[in-house]
């Protein structure tokens, strides 16, 4: 639960300050959705949900049933399991294009002080039953969280964490290839990549593993944060793979890694290249970004007429050596709480309830990819966009002598008579 206490503001008004406890819960609940459900009358909760989550084809998202074995595993291994469905309107000339997609969020398995190999292997063992549950539930495309095979150590600026980096065809990929082949499943694996062909350069990379266990390709993170404790440019720089869209047997997918979600043009580029589902594997903490989390992905899905899968890791990762943020505040040994809350957003502005803020989880969602074109037809964003104007502005902006197009009121600086 959270503790609250009252303080008196300068204007005499009483304000309530809330402090979350270490369990990462929200006033004792594992998500905003569960908090509202437990505390609002059913008719009020229905209306609030309509505003917060939107409607898909005129109604709330349906729950879907999964095999009993998946629920047994989630109970035994203590991970959150939720399943929903996005519909599309029935078409006369196209059959439905339904794909089952899964997101996994998880905390690390051992303390960051444990031997690196033990940490890595423990994460494999933790994820194995969750991936098995996804496969047994018929998931076609599965995406893991950013740098899933290690703690998110990029706050520390310590180079020893580079030992977790590996080439795209090594241990973590091999671990997932077996599941991809076993379950006929495409898997997106965001890792810390070591590029042995280019001087052992390190990248933040998503490896796309095909449903036959093959490596389809990879994408490297386009935007690198330099904010708060996120000192990632100590380890890797901006990616060089552009905005690739990977055509799979289940549809066209892309990966907008973490900080890229703050850049609208990054989302746009994946859409221009034809993406139908864009995954956003992330690692972000409550104090920094939680109010933005339900907004940015949903807005991207609306603006670009595709589905978005947002994944955030869970828990508080404490490191052996304290570090500072360069903000004058005391040194500390952790980022803060990674708040999970993974969810899907659809092009019609609807979205699923999120997974827990404080537990490992698997979110499974059926989506009819026909909805992408239906929303393009409805809103005409591609037709009404003025790309030629944007291109002209950007071309001018990149020149050293660029001047903003500002028209000032001629009376703005005149002295009053």
Automatic annotation (TrEMBL):
The keyword Transferase does not apply. PROSITE patterns: CN_HYDROLASE. SUPFAM superfamilies: Carbon-nitrogen hydrolase. Coiled coil: none annotated. GO terms for biological process: beta-alanine biosynthetic process via 3-ureidopropionate. GO terms for molecular function: beta-ureidopropionase activity. InterPro entries: Aliph_Amidase/BUP, C-N_Hydrolase, C-N_Hydrolase_sf. Pathway: Amino-acid biosynthesis; beta-alanine biosynthesis. Its EC number is 3.5.1.6. It catalyses: 3-(carbamoylamino)propanoate + H2O + 2 H(+) = beta-alanine + NH4(+) + CO2; 3-(carbamoylamino)-2-methylpropanoate + H2O + 2 H(+) = (R)-3-amino-2-methylpropanoate + NH4(+) + CO2. Keywords: Hydrolase. Belongs to the carbon-nitrogen hydrolase superfamily. BUP family. This is Beta-ureidopropionase. It comes from Quercus suber (Cork oak). The gene is PYD3_0.
